[in-house]
Amino acid sequence: MINKKLIILSASLLMSIATFSQKSEVKAAEKALKGNDFTSALANISKAESLIANADTKTKAKFYYVKGMALYANGTKPMNAEKAAAVLEELMKIEKESKSSKYSAEASQTLKNIVIAVNDQAAKDYDKAIQDSDLESFKNASSGFYRVYNLSVRDTSALYSAAVSAYYGKDYENSTIHLQKLLDLGFTGVSKTYKAENSDGTFRYFTSKKDMDTNLRLGIVKNGNEEVSEARTKNIYKFLAMSYSATDKNAEAIVMMAKARSLAPNDYNLILDEANLYYQIGDNIKYSEKIEEAIAIKPSDPILHFNVGTLNMDIDAVKSKKHLSKAIELDPNFANAYANLGNLILKKLDAVQEEMDATGMNFDKADQIREEKMLPILNESLPFLEKSYELQPSDGGRIQLNSLYENLGMEKYIE
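-> structure tokens emitted (415 positions)
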């Protein structure tokens, strides 16, 4: 009986010693934290890690506070951002359950600072990627925006930025995953912002209508209004379509693009995106159809007419000539349109050549066909090809013109 009591007393004594040691280590870690010695703070806090589950609420709160702040290290350890955030969120959960708030205000502000810092770096990477056309920077931006999403799950706009950055970085796997996640979450991207005018004519933005109305009532700002952003759902479908297309999942790409178009059937840029999708998968008929849809909306775009004209050079000569001529009308300096129109005319030579070949050894007949049919075609094409070369000289254009001059018996030669 005596032995049993001694054993119970010994176990109790061991628990007390462990608790004392735990509190001592947390206290030492807190002291190191105050001195900005984050390495020592983490070293001491790790010694208490295995015992913290059984600690009292106050000790737990202090433990998570010290650990989270030491990991954050005043923002000097960005690689620890997610770990620090997870620890600080645990701290706030503990204090909420115990109805305490000793550390929560500071923890909440630190969490905001972490998110802001990660988001700012991601935005810098994105700007660099745009400026330098750098795929790696796009991937870094995507990774950063995804970290923001993980740090603040309600911020689905960060997930959208991660998806778009991944696409431009040619990381189609992550782009597809993020975009599908947005659809699963029902993300639309629609948001409200509140804007009012300062006395100096600049604008101030507010996060809520209540804040804006308060400032309006106090006369601090004037002319307040609410702005609603455009939905991004069509863009999600569009980027999904292009991501699928880039990985040869053409059937899925067509389905996604159709969904995008259904949300904005008259969106000019989206029509061009759909046209380009069909071009990439080799469906020239659908590509031409979509380009003509775009022309119906914007008939003054010479590039659209050039594309339709070029695409139909081997399919429909009449349509090709019509659109290439229109491209030149809209842009008299469109060198490639002149070149293609000249070459479209030269395609008539195929039938003439067949006719000449059929004359056999009848050289007089062949010469007659040459004079009556071949030379007029060469003369018809010549001014277009000369104009193209004048606007945009090239070795190919020079060789072609010299050949024409020779066949026409002209004493001209371009060196």
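The first helix runs from residue 2 to 34.
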